[in-house]
Structure formats: structure tokens, C-alpha cells
Specification:
2 domains; serine/threonine-protein kinase; 12 helices; Phosphorylase Kinase, domain 1; AGC-kinase_C; 383 residues; globular; single chain; EC 2.7.11.11; alpha+beta
Length: 383
Amino acid sequence: MAATVAETQPATTALSAGMASPHQRHAGSALSTDSAPQPLPPTRSFKLSDFKRVRTLGTGTFARVCLVRPASATQPLEEEKNPEVYALKILKKTEVIKLKQIDHVRNERAILADVAGYPFITNLLGSFSDNESLYMLLDYVPGGELFSYLRKYRRFDEQVARFYAAEIVLVLEFLHERQGGVAYRDLKPENLLLDQEGHIKLVDFGFAKRLGYKDDRPVETYTLCGTPEYLAPEVIHNKGHTTAVDWWALGILIYEFLTGYPPFWHQNPIEIYKQIVEKPVIFPQEPVISDEAQDIIKSFCTIDRSRRLGNISGGAGRVKAHPFFNGVNWDDMLSRRHRGPIIPPLRYPGDDQCFDQYPEEDGTRIPYTADMANRYDPYFEDF
């Protein structure tokens, strides 16, 4: 799981500071305490005592995801035929406030509730809070990060890349065109998990935002967020961006699937930004990338977003019709009729071996004071 960096400076200052490392993320200011928050969609409510932790699956700057079981479970996981297991995302209120992520967290919670049940997105089962933390109960996706498999195999052949890209196209079509213009804004291999049948699940909606439309045009937003290698030029220029940033990121992702590395890379993030806005995508001689794959990558990674595939007239339909996806049965893909090309090596239901090991919490935390509660509880009470 990639680390998260929260940045509250204006974009131009943040970029010149060069403070992020590769695969870290910049988040713009996400705190609006000058107006009452919009109510969150209802979900099932739980309490922490309903569960017991198995272990940590991943950590971020202010969040931790843990594998949990019902508190009443007694048998070892490996002995249960159909164990009840979940992923519990835990966000410390003090860190959310400190990093000015209140709006981002509320956006994530609201959008996950609205998209619950979509086959290629992590499923929010419920949410709750206590005095110290916010919690989101999610379905457990046992196969681990797609990034781990890409690292293991070094690169994917075109058939494998096409399969995962097609499932991502369906996700973006759903978010952009059927959910009021939701921009995901953090597409990368670390945020794609594999389920037991080898299908992707998009996770971590911390930077997702419902932009909506005005006069049939997508509303722009200006928050600097994402991972350096996948940022679209308009995000770097801070000229306002829309859902078009996700199509750019998909082009970068397909390139990385096929080569094992992103097209724009440097140890210094500022140099990555310069490459993105100044240089075209260059393809290596080895491995050989097909003409169709090169064309769809270049069509996604078009600096002028008015000409970017996915953002032009026809939307995701034009993407599906691209020659790179010839032979894809989109109905079969949506219904998950066939297993994925990589099947995770799971020994039993509830197996956690596909996730890296992380140190558990040491119990130290900044207290959530009464003064903080008086000021910020209105933003957490309906979580």
C-alpha cells in the first residue's frame, strides 16, 4: 500500500517544494469547516467491539486497514470452511484533522456508500465512529495488490493487460457517466486488489470526488492530489481538472502493465512533473508494444484533454470501441463470466498471505480533546 502525503500548500508551491517520493501522494486542502456538512448516505452501523483484529493489511499516513472477524468467532481461520472476514479501515480523527482531510474522508465515505455493490469496486458494508477514530467496514479482497503481481512477473503480456484495463474501463464508465461525474484521481496498481477469482477491486477512494455537471460540462476542481507518475498535465498546471485525469492515468497504467515501469520516472518528483508536461510518451524497443496498445496509450496520454480518449464525445463507448479491445465481450466482462488471468494463491478462505506484513499499532496516539470534539464532531457524528 502506497504511503500518503497530505499537502495543504497551493499547487505551485507544493510542486516547487519537491517533498514527495515516488508512489507517495499529494493531497490538497480538504477541510471546509465554514459551512454545515452535507449528510452522508446511511449505511449499516456497527461498533468496534463487534470485531476482533487478525492483523494489519496496510497502513497510510492517517489510516490503517485491518483484517477482522466477528468477535464471536472461535475457530482458527484456516479451519473454517466459510469464515466471516472483513477489511476494517481505521482513520484517526486527530490525524484526519491535522492533515486537513475531513472533506476527503467524507467524500470517500459518501461515494463508497453510493457505489456499493458494483462488481469491480470494494464494497462498503457499514461505517461507525468512536471517540478516537472513524471506521469503514469493507469486504475482504484476499488476493492482495495487483502491484505485487506486476512486481513478481516484471510485466504483463498484452492479453493480461487488456483484461485488467477492460475491467478498469468499466469502473471509470460507471463512476464518470452513472455516478454524477465521480473523478477517482488515484488510479495505480497499488489501489487495485485481486479477488479470489482474479478480478480487480478498486480500493481507497480517499481522493475521489463527485464533480457533477453544469451546462452539460463537467465541473472542474483544483485540489492537487494523486501519485506523481500518474498525474495528468492539467493537475500539475493547476488549471482545473475533471474526470479526464482518470483516462490519462489509465494510459500510464497500461504502459506500466506492458513494460513494468511508468513512462515518466525520476527520483525527484519535480523532474517527473517536467517530463509529464514537456515530453511525449516514448515506447521501448523491448518489450515490443503492439501498434494498438501504443495508440490507445497515446490517445489517453494526450495533453489536450479536449482530444483525450474517454473525455471526447462518446465517452467510455469510444474507449471500448478502440482496436486495443477488439475481441473483448463487454457483457461477459461486466458479469465476470470468466476468471481472471492471475488467480491468487489462496490456501483457504480468509487467507492473508497475499498481503505484506506490517507492524501493529503501538498504542500511542494524539488524544482527541474536548475542544476538538466541540469543533469537529459535527463532521463525524453521522459517519
